[in-house]
Amino acid sequence: MAYAYDDQNIFAKILRGEIPNTTVLETDHSLAFRDLHPQAPVHVLVIPKGPYVCYDHFAQMASDAEILDYTRAIGRVCAMEGVAGDGFRMIANAGANGVQEVPHLHVHILAGRPLGRMLQRA
Ligand code: AMP
Known about the structure:
Number of strands: 5
Bound molecules: adenosine monophosphate
Structural class: alpha+beta
CATH superfamily: HIT-like
Helix content: 25-40%
């Protein structure tokens, strides 16, 4: 599977500083910022700085340093946002069936209210 990265996607523009964001955490290889249209009291997006379309692309192609940094960044955001006590959900949509809107890998971290069942029938 070849992954074609579009560097005009909105998160690439955020990474280049062309669009503002509300940063929660920045590390060497990752950026976490608040979702523009939050669907829960806590709704943070965590992205790698590298040009990866989706999670499977990242998991196959990223360096060990990027994967370590990204995984630790997600852990740090969870701790900073205090999501462990009442629980939370992480979502990484991919492609058309996954209804991925922005083609740059992002994990959603959602918390702060009961989130319902994982999936609804379409
Ligand atoms: P997905 O459907 O998984 O691709 O989710 C894309 C997410 O990006 C949505 O939750 C949007 O609200 C969010 N989003 C789009 N543009 C921005 C932006 N400029 N800053 C922060 N979040 C954004």
